[in-house]
Recover the amino acids of this structure.
């Protein structure tokens, strides 16, 4: 779920768009660790609930700041 959250943040996809993109763009499933032959993609409501939990506990901003700092430090 965390990787799906990052996909949303980096791509700007809304919840429904993220769900659709996982079916349409295979590299996103690989990044998220989802094997469509054995698993279902989380639906938009699940993505929304997870995002709200991160935001409610003020974890989203902290995680994104740390990840951006790590990527910047590696020149990515």
């Amino acid at each position: 779920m965390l990787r799906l959250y990052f996909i949303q943040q980096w791509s700007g996809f809304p919840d429904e768009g993220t769900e659709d993109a996982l079916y349409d763009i295979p590299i996103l499933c690989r990044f998220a660790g989802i094997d469509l032959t054995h698993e279902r993609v989380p639906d938009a409501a699940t993505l929304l609930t997870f995002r709200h939990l991160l935001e409610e506990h003020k974890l989203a901003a902290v995680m994104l700041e740390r990840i951006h700092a790590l990527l910047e430090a590696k020149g990515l």
User: Anything to note?
Assistant: Residues 60-73 form the longest helix (14 residues).
